Each structure stands twice: as C-alpha cells, then as structure tokens.
C-alpha cells in the first residue's frame, strides 16, 4: 500500500506514538493525581500539589520507559483489531483484547513498579522471569490484574470506538493536512468525553482502595485498643468519603484523563485517517489506470477501423 507502506506498519507507528505522546504529558499529571488522592487531610491546595509535582519532574518520570511500553502496546493492539469488528462490537472487542493481552501488559507494569521501588530494570526482569518464585509472583499478579485491565480497555478504547461513528467528519481525507485536522478534531471531541466516563468509574474504585489502605494501616498498628481503632476508622472514613475529598480527586483524575486521552487518541486517529487517505489514493490511481486502459483500447479500435 502507498509505495510499500502497509496498514499494520501505520497502526504500529500510531500505537507507539500514542504511548510516547500520552506519557510525555500524562506522567506528571498522574503523579499530581496520586498526590491529591493521598492528601485526605487537605494539607495542600490543588495548586500547591501541582507546584510540588512540577518541582520534582525527574521523580515523576521514574519508570517512564515501562509506562510508554505498556501504553504503546495497548494502543497498538486496539488499532490492530479489524476496523469492522471495532465498529460492530467496540466494548466486547476491547474487553477481550485487554483480558487476553494482560500477560503482555503486566510485564512492563511490574517492571515499572520495581523501578519506582528503586530496582533496576535488568535486576527486576531477572528476579521476576528467571526464577520459579518470580514466575509464580508474576502469574498470581497477572491473574488479579487481567479482569481490571479488560474493564479499563473497555471503558477507554471501547468508548472511543463506540463514539467514532457519531462524531467522525463526513467523507474521506484528501491530503495529509486533512488527516491531521480530522484526527485533532476527533481527539478533542472524544478524548474529554471518554475521560468523564473513565473518571466516574475510576473514582469509585480509587476511593474504595484509599479507604481500604487506611483501614489496613489501622489494623496493623500496635498498641491501639478497640475503642481507639474504632475512632481511627471513623476518622479515616470521614476524611475520604466526603464531598470535598471526592471533588478534589475527581478534578485531578479528570484533568489527567482528558490530557492523556486526547494525546493518545490523536495519534490513533492519525493512523486510522492516514490509512483511509492511502486507500482513497489507491482507489483514484486504480480508477485512473482503468480509464487510461479503456482510452487506449478505444483509440486502438478507432485507429484499426480507419
């Protein structure tokens, strides 16, 4: 296609670019989101957390290579799903892609977590994938990770593919400039919409996990009687399950998702639209070739008859 450029090559390039682009802007925002979620006592304002994030950008990008690998792989696999299947069953296709590809996704994920804890990538890879204990840990973690990853891809990429037919501009792109313009338009329309869906679903699970972590810390604390533990549990619940805390978490989470989704979807739509452009060019060349062939035959017949 198009001078040796195949559909799959374009899709892989789009997926890799999506992984790089999304994490370039998304990693600091994700650190900002985590800092807000951990601050149930409101020790800093949202602006204060953002300033702290910007001051320590180097720390935010720890494990960034693994995050790029994970996001790039997920984006590429979504693009490699046949276009017709993405249109007919967007949620089902995305869910099962995430579910069955979770062993692949979990490799960079576990390497990223090890890197954040100060372990180098080669050492973490050796520990996880060359020992029986490491492989058991990886298998157990993947089994827990797989259903959630399927759900995450369904909410993100499934929602994207579901919305495309309703928001896609009419016609086919005629130039590279139109490809970029159409991709940017779709990304700016669908990215924030999907972000709202993801944020609403994620907020419930993140609030629950924060409460669970705080209650677990209380349970492990020594030297606290039942009355003291009950008071701490009540304090933990009142600090996290309240409108102010939930609103702050929703703002930080939605901000991160809007920026990340818009960047991710731009490169993915760029790949889809570029493939459409190449096919349109091929169609025009085929029609022109057929017309030239018919003209040559007609001219030959007219010359022969005269």
Describe what this molecule looks like in 3D.
The protein is elongated and about 105 Å long. The chain is mainly alpha-helical and 306 residues long. The model has no long low-confidence stretch (mean pLDDT 83). The chain has one domain. Helix 1 crosses helix 2 (46-55), helix 6 runs antiparallel to helix 9 (132-167) and helix 8 (121-129) packs across helix 9. The longest helix is centred in the last third of the chain and has 63 residues, at 243-305. It has helices at residues 7-38, 46-55, 57-60, 64-80, 83-88, 90-100, 102-116, 121-129, 132-167, 176-220, 226-240, 243-305. It has 12 helices and no strands. The two termini are 41 Å apart.
Question: What are the key terms here?
Answer:
306 residues, mainly alpha, 12 helices, 86% helix, elongated
Summary of the model, kept short:
With 306 residues, the protein is mainly alpha-helical. The chain contains twelve helices and no strands.
What about the largest sheet?
none
Low-confidence stretches: none
The structural class is mainly alpha
Count of β-strands:
0
**Element-by-element helix/strand order:** HHHHHHHHHHHH
Rg calculated over all Cα atoms: 25 Å
How much of the sequence lies in strands comes to: under 5%
In which range does the helix fraction lie? over 70%
Tell me the span between the first and last alpha carbons: 41 Å
Number of helices: 12
As for the number of domains, it is 1
Note the overall shape: elongated
